[in-house]
């Protein structure tokens, strides 16, 4: 399991990549991507995203 990135809402700001304690997030071609094997579902990124682009 892992969080879901809502691509239509993601602006590629990178805030979530800095907040993730597991290093599971990266920004590629201006959109965030999650490595499902690394995500622990801690929800830090869900609260950190300024655009509401991450859901669990
Ligand atoms: S914080 Fe939100 S808008 Fe910014 S890159 Fe991550 S998912 Fe996209
Ligand atoms: S839920 Fe936690 S571990 Fe998963 S991508 Fe977000 S910040 Fe990283």
Automatic annotation (TrEMBL):
It holds the Pfam family Fer4_10. This is 4Fe-4S dicluster domain-containing protein. InterPro entries: 4Fe4S_Fe-S-bd, 4Fe4S_Fe_S_CS. It comes from Desulfoscipio geothermicus DSM 3669. GO terms for molecular function: iron-sulfur cluster binding; metal ion binding. The keyword Iron-sulfur applies. It comes from the Bacteria. The keyword Cell inner membrane does not apply. Residues 1-30, 32-56 form the 4Fe-4S ferredoxin-type domain. Keywords: Iron, Iron-sulfur, Metal-binding.
